[in-house]
Amino acid sequence: MYIPRSFAIEDLARLRELMERFSFATLVTVEDGLPIATHLPLLFRPADQGYGTLLGHMARANSQWRTFAANREALVIFQGHHAYISPAWYTTQPSVPTWNYMVVHAYGVPRIIEDDEQVEAILRSTVERYEGVFGYSWRMELPEEFLQRQLKAIVAFEIPLSRIEGKFKLSQNRSEEDRRGVIAGLEQSPDPVNRELAQLMRKLVLETASAQHGPEVADRCSLRGSL
Predict the structure, then answer these.
(1) Is 183 left (phi over 0), alpha (psi -120 to 50) or beta?
(2) Quick one: which of 35, 43, 99, 224 has the most CB atoms within 10 Å?
(3) Which CATH class is domain 5-169?
(4) What is the spatial distance between Cα 169 and Cα 3, in angstroms, rounded to a whole number?
(5) 1 secondary structure, DSSP code
(6) pLDDT at res. 206
(7) Residue 167 near residue 211, CB atoms below 8 Å
(8) Nearest in space to 83 (alpha carbons), one of 195, 178, 205
(9) In the chain, where the domains are located
(10) 227 residues of the chain, pLDDT tens digit each
(11) Quick check: helix, strand or coil at residue 14?
């Protein structure tokens, strides 16, 4: 991934947070020399050492799992908040439109999980992860015969991660006045995603100011409602 230095995020905790929140990801592998992709939810499991592991499953009818046998590195893309940025929000002119976004690329070699108990555990963990939002209204309490048919219809896998790249393009390369204008423009948007991106931009640049100049400067920025 092309990552200019000003947009690079190397804080693993921040990258993992995005991966866990935006866990419906894109898994990319290669089949017969061509890329193949599947969109699916993935569970992230941290590790004491290394980058952690992704767990997931796909339909057995999906041929992508057969590419895992090549023992090649796969790419998993996690897309966070993103928004169109209008040049009308900039003080600096002339300017052109752009797109702000937050994305993580995770890499590792997929491994198929054959053990039935592990496969079922991944499914139950996936259900718990997403049902929790709804108060666990459904708990995967299924007739055994039906459950076994479902398990045979999927392929579970894990991806021990070998590296993670993060790119948060949030106008860090623009002037303070331009960044302030972008935040104001996004905050006025009817789209709640745009408004949340504005909050994340403000938080990131305040943290950067605190790290570079001390908490007093960041506090002054916060009090005046600017960057």
Answers:
(1) alpha
(2) 43
(3) mainly beta
(4) 9
(5) -
(6) 67
(7) no
(8) 195
(9) 5-169, 174-227
(10) 999 999 999 999 999 999 999 999 999 999 999 999 999 999 999 998 889 999 999 999 999 999 999 999 999 999 999 999 999 999 999 999 999 999 999 999 999 999 999 999 999 999 999 998 888 889 899 999 999 999 999 999 999 999 999 999 999 999 999 999 999 999 999 999 999 999 999 988 767 666 655 655 444 444 333 33
(11) helix
> What is the C-alpha to C-alpha distance for residues 30 and 182, in angstroms, rounded to an integer?
39
Element (H, E) at 123: helix 116-131
Question: What confidence score (pLDDT) does residue 135 get?
Answer: 87
Q: Which long-range contacts (CB under 8 A, 24 or more apart) does 84-89 make?
A: 85/171, 85/182, 85/185, 86/185, 88/185, 89/178, 89/181, 89/182, 89/184, 89/185
Going by C-alpha positions, the residue among 19, 36, 18 that lies closest to residue 27 is 36
DSSP single-letter state for residue 160: E
Query: In the structure encoding, which two tokens stand for residue 129, read together?
Result: 């992860």
At residue 191, the pLDDT reads 97
Sorted by sequence, the CB contacts under 8 Å of residue 92 that are 6+ apart come out as 174, 175, 177, 178
3-state secondary structure of 79: strand
Question: Which residues 6+ apart lie within 8 Å of 175 measured at CB?
Answer: 91, 92
Q: Give CB contacts under 8 A, 24+ apart, made by 197-202.
A: 197/81, 197/82, 197/83, 197/100, 197/170, 200/81, 200/102, 200/170, 201/100, 201/170, 201/171, 202/227
Please give the Cα distance from 146 to 154 (Å, whole number): 13
184: tokens are 């104001």
Which residue is associated with the tokens 């403000």?
202
